[in-house]
Amino acid sequence: MVDDIVFWGLAVVAVASGIAVFRVDSMARATYALAVSFVAVGLALLLFGLDYLGVVVVLMMVMEMAIMAIYMIMFMGMNPALMPMSMVHGKRTSLAVAGLTFAVLAAGILLVDWPERRGAPAADLTLAVGRAVMGGKMLVMMTVSAVLFATIVSALVLALPRGRYDDDPADEAAS
Amino acid sequence: MTGSSLTQVSAAWVPLAAVLLLAVAAAGAAFDGAVAARAEGRPWQHGAGVPVAETARLLRQRRRRTVAADRPLELVGTGGLVVVALLMVVVVPLGRWTLGDLPVGIVWFNAMDVVVWALVWLAGWGPNSAHALVGGYRFLAQALAYELPLMFAITAPAVAAGSLAVGDVVAAQEGLWFAVWMPVAFLVFCGAVLAFSVRAPFSAPAGTDLAGGVLADSSGIDRWLLLAGRWALMAAGSAFAVAVFLGGGHGPLLPAWLWSLVKTAALLAALVWVRRRLPTVRPDRLLPFGWVVVLPLVLLQLLVVAVVVVGRG
Amino acid sequence: MTLQTVLLVAAALFCVGLYGAISQQVVVMVMMGLELMLNGVILAAGAFWWFLSPAPDGQVLLLVVITAMTVEMAMGFAVATLLHRSRGSDMTDMATDLSR
User: Fold this and answer.
1) Regions of chain C with pLDDT less than 50
2) B2 interface with A at CB cutoff 8 Å
3) What is the pLDDT of residues B30-62, one digit of tens each?
4) Cβ–Cβ below 8 Å for B111 and A124
5) 0.90 exceeded by pTM
6) Membrane-spanning residues where (chain C) (predicted)?
7) Does C touch A (3+ CB pairs < 8 Å)?
8) Hey, where are the domains in chain A?
9) Which of A151, B93, B209, B231 might form a disulfide with B98, Cβ 3.0–4.6 angstroms?
10) Measured between CB atoms, does A151 come within 8 Å of chain B?
11) Burial B99-113 (b: 16+ CB within 10 A, else e)
12) 3-class DSSP state of C26
């Protein structure tokens, strides 16, 4: 019962903020509306017992949207908070396509005879996903992943040319 | 849901946890004021009252508005910091009690500290002012520098304990604290706490060269929320560090909850002292330092921890 | 909260994202549409897993979707940055010659 109320609350938030992404005028608001939508879906995953994946969705998507907001504002080349605008093409076609897709999907969802639930969730789902990805050799994989990541970073550091701020005379005086 | 040795208390205790967090944060602010007063040659009593006086002043101050401010986003940014600090301490046990020992408590803490990215940037974006916005951008720039070292630093205790639940991590430290045999991870985490609470050497987003950065145009209750949020984040970060690195409630004589509090207060005091000693570093210098020096060190630390755990079987 | 209702919500998210991906003119806004579509996919995959067969290894599918999202994001940023550098704009209509 409580789960139902929480789920419907999250569902409304997710869809409403999803619609808001394409309705608001401000790039910052659009990006963070998408972030809210992701957080709602991440929390909904917690209801399915998917603790790890739900929290990871929240973590990654808030991070991505924080960076995304910068790109949005950088590439729009104006202060979108001050100027309402519409930057769409083929609005009517798009609406029709989206509406039709939803109708087809909804019909499929309601008409298909879904099978009964098979199996039961593992006691520790976080451990289960770890075992599913890495098998019994989880510790070895974690060790290897740290080494691999270190290699990637050092290769990038070696390969990248110096950035445009690096030839700042103040830096050279300091170093 | 709970770890072996922890008791999950009911949600009715949340207000008490909030009061406790704010009290620790206020104590940190008072200590900071006292240290500042001593540094200026005045008696420390003059400085210790600063948080109270500042609270009284800000609560009475009328809110100033900027032109064309994005008010909803600004409210989220300013009000959110305290809320995020509270959500962080949800997974931190106080002695034997915990509000909710999530099976993925460590990832939860990490997710909450990523939310701080969004909130500080929003607090900078909201007022529609150049200084505040530059402050917000600076925070994101240095967030890229501290976030990955932070993630790998809190991975180390999780690997050692073989669990992502904070309760299990505390239980695994009976006898030997993780800070003792993973000092690099501990120090990096302490640095990250200073970073996400925007303290020196990571205080450029609120730097004086920007007339206060993200704080530049805030006033009244908004400013109070931002300042209180920074202190609450620092307190929450210290409490989490105590749980995953300093043995949580483990200790002789005193009851477990008191040990948690004493350790948190001591770590917070140490962080306050450190931040008074260090200068503010420019974000563009932090970035190469974070990626070229700190990140390899933390990865080495993680490697050592993993090898030790594999060796123990 | 049954399988059908969760899937309907997921479908709604997917279609809102689809509308955005087709109609938006700016590359980063198109990316937001794609992200919203994948958001729906995540919710649907979680629901399928929970309501149909909560086998231990079924969560891997979700992990794949989340990874796909980050890759999409990184590539999208790269494309948008390149477009912006070479043409000073990132409107999709001005990049139609790329399809030729």
Assistant:
1) none
2) no
3) 988 888 888 888 888 888 888 888 888 988 888
4) no
5) no
6) 6-22, 34-52, 58-83
7) yes
8) 1-81, 124-175
9) B93
10) no
11) bebbbbbbbbbbbbb
12) strand
Is residue A175 pLDDT above 60, yes or no?
A: no
Checking ipTM against 0.95, whether it exceeds it is no
Answer whether residue A21 shows pLDDT above 50.
Answer: yes
Total of domains in chain B: 1
Higher per-residue confidence, A13 vs B217: A13
Range of the domain at B85: 7-312
Task: Give the pLDDT of residue A165.
Answer: 56
Q: Which residues of A touch C19 (CB under 8 A)?
A: 22, 94-95, 97-98
Task: Please report the domains of chain C, with CATH numbers, ordered by start residue.
Answer: 3-90 (1.10.287.3510)
**Considering just the CA atoms, what is the radius of gyration of chain B in Å?**
19
Contact assignment for A143 to B303 by CB distance below 8 Å:
yes
Q: Residues B282, B204: contact at Cβ < 8 Å?
A: yes
> For every residue of chain A, which 3-state class applies, written as one string?
CHHHHHHHHHHHHHHHHHHHHCCCCCHHHHHHHHHHHHHHHHHHHHHCCCHHHHHHHHHHHHHHHHHHHHHHHHHHCCCCCCCCCCCECCHHHHHHHHHHHHHHHHHHHHHCCCCCCCCCCCCCHHHHHHHHHHCCCHHHHHHHHHHHHHHHHHHHHHHCCCCCCCCCHHHHHHC
Residue B70 forms part of a structural domain = yes
C54 contacts on A by Cβ (under 8 Å): 49, 117, 119-122
B76 within domain boundaries? yes
Q: Which residues contact B93 (CB under 8 A, 6 or more apart)?
A: B6, B101, B166, B167, B170, B243, B248, B249, B260
